[in-house]
Amino acid sequence: MKRSKYLVPLSWEHHNALLNANRLHKGIANRTETRILLEFANFIWQNDLFPHFQREENIIMTRQEWPHVPEHLRTRVLQEHQTMDDLVKRLNNLSDEDEIRRLLNELASMVISHVRFEERELFPAIEEAFFEQSLQKIEQALREAHVPGCTIWSPKFWQKKE
Ligand SMILES: [Fe+2]
Ligand SMILES: [Fe+2]
């Protein structure tokens, strides 16, 4: 995957988001307890994913060139952020374990497809629509705001055999 030079701090965060989404998929497949999976999902949501979406929205989408990015891409990115936010809220208001697991699976799949969409379609469109000077400012702001994501977690439920 070709990385956008200016948006590289977001790509580091994407790498981590993919790692954790795959861990969730593995945990569902190897029948890890729902409570453990939900705790993990809430942790990565609060520490990695939600702040990452906020950085995208506050650092990139508030700039004057944002309206020059094709509308279907702008709509999609915001809709998906909202859908994942709603999913996490629903997850925490359910008692049916099968339904929780189904939604955890859906969340992990959405994270993966959202990251792919941004890397393949949204980021190249941003680099095309934005002025060089603006992209440099964005890069600097992203580097300052970047927080290394959660990679250490216990228990390592994803290592359990299926
Ligand atoms: Fe995003
Ligand atoms: Fe992203």
Give me some keywords for this one:
162 residues, 72% helix, binds fe (ii) ion, 5 helices, mainly alpha, elongated
What does it look like?
This protein is mostly helical and 162 residues long. It has one domain. Helix content is 72%, strand content 0%. The chain contains 5 helices and no strands. It is elongated, with a radius of gyration of 17 Å. The mean pLDDT is 95. The structure holds fe (ii) ion (2 copies). The site of one fe (ii) ion has 5 residues, from helix 1 and helix 2.
Quick description:
InterPro entries: Hemerythrin-like. This protein is mainly α and about 160 residues long. The protein contains five helices and no strands.
Proportion of residues in helical segments: over 70%
- Whole-number total of structural domains: 1
Indicate the structural class.
Answer: mainly alpha
Distinct helical segment count: 5
Terminal-residue CA separation: 30 Å
Radius of gyration: 17 Å
Poorly predicted sequence stretches spanning 5 or more consecutive residues: none
* Mean pLDDT over all positions: 95
The strand count comes to 0
What share of residues are in beta strands? under 5%
